[in-house]
Amino acid sequence: MLFGKEHVQRYQETDGAEGHEWNGTTTLLLTTTGRKSGKKYTTPLIYQRHGDSFLVVASKGGDPRHPEWYLNLQADPEVEVQVKDEKFRARAHTALPEEKPEMWRMMTRVWPDYDNYQTKTDREIPVVVLERLS
């Protein structure tokens, strides 16, 4: 099973032939710019399409702290995304309160553990919308 840096490497080397399908769901690669270092960081994340956008969840397994990639995109919302062999720039934003319930349901249908993660933490786990830049 691919995970972490190995997951990113195999996904990039095979244009998603390895790594896009993962544990019964699908993943994309999200590249953010480090808010302190300025370096690029790439993270594999479970996703769903939502119209022309893509949704990901900043769960960190229910940790009390947000994942680093989420903190990075809050500082710089312009990100790079790879879905299979398609690469594009996107702007990220946290789902608005009125958007989140529907989006959360979409994401928990493909990864039910998100509900379990939310019970482990007092922080509200964000759903992030990735909107393609033209």
From TrEMBL:
What does it catalyze?
oxidized coenzyme F420-(gamma-L-Glu)(n) + a quinol + H(+) = reduced coenzyme F420-(gamma-L-Glu)(n) + a quinone
**What residues form the membrane-spanning segments?**
none
Alphabetized Pfam families for the sequence: F420H2_quin_red (PF04075)
| Domain of life assignment | Bacteria
Q: Which family does it belong to?
A: Belongs to the F420H(2)-dependent quinone reductase family.
Q: What is this protein called?
A: Nitroreductase family deazaflavin-dependent oxidoreductase
The organism encoding this protein is Nonomuraea roseola
